Recover the amino acids of this structure.
């Protein structure tokens, strides 16, 4: 696995950890986790973990 793939998986893992801390009814929390860890739609898979 190359460095970029490792960064992508780190971002996914961080996002999933964040989502699991959200309430099941809190869609805003889930949206925030995705935006924070995976980025907006045009920046998907970019994460501060890989900068």
């Amino acid at each position: 696995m190359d460095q970029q793939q490792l960064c992508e998986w780190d971002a996914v893992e961080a996002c999933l950890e964040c989502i699991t801390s959200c309430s099941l009814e809190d869609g805003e929390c889930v949206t925030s986790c995705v935006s924070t860890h995976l980025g907006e739609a045009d920046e998907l898979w970019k994460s501060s973990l890989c900068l």
User: Anything to note?
Assistant: The chain has one domain: 3-50. The radius of gyration is 11 Å. The chain has a mean pLDDT of 79.
